[in-house]
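Sharing in case it's useful to others searching the archive later.

Someone asked me privately for the predicted structure of Beta-Ig-H3/fasciclin, so I'm posting the question and my answer publicly. Question first, with the sequence:
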Amino acid sequence: MRTHLILTAAAAALALSGCGSKTDTPAETTTVAGSDTAPAPAAAPSQMLASSTIAANLSAAPDHKSLAAAVTQAGLSETLSGVGPFTVFAPTDAAFAQVPPVTRDGWMRPAQKEVLASVLKYHVVPGKLTAADLAAKITEGGGTALLKTVDGRELTATKNGDTILLTSGSGNKAAVTAADLGQSNGVVHVVDAVLLPQM
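And my answer, the predicted structure tokens:
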């Protein structure tokens, strides 16, 4: 009888602890999903370490698998492991999923390595620009800032409320959904779309 009571109490304790962990998970997911609110950047440092390089952090981040694979395929891992500093606007896997599969698959072919590298370099700006730096540049420019990428092309930065928006040369837009993820060789800002340069 005593054994039965102990087992019942243990089962109840496990059930309650299981309920507690289930409650925690949705709250965490909700915080991460709140794209332009302050808590979103706080969720990302668990994925990216300030002591690691941009290339290393992208490889380890669960929501940047497509970008990490593209960086490797384009031969840019060494560059993004270098001293920098660099500002990288990093599209998530969901952002890559918005690109038509034919285009996405085509980028990953060896014959398209230069095209893929060109697309990825369009997401990299020399120097370390924090969200505050970007906002200051936008203010100085009367609402618009032109950012020169590592390959010499321009991205246009604007603000919509507190959200920083980037517009590519081909006209598509991406919003910064998590900002100021510190890296040993720069900073990463997560974006919700792949920016397409004018080819």
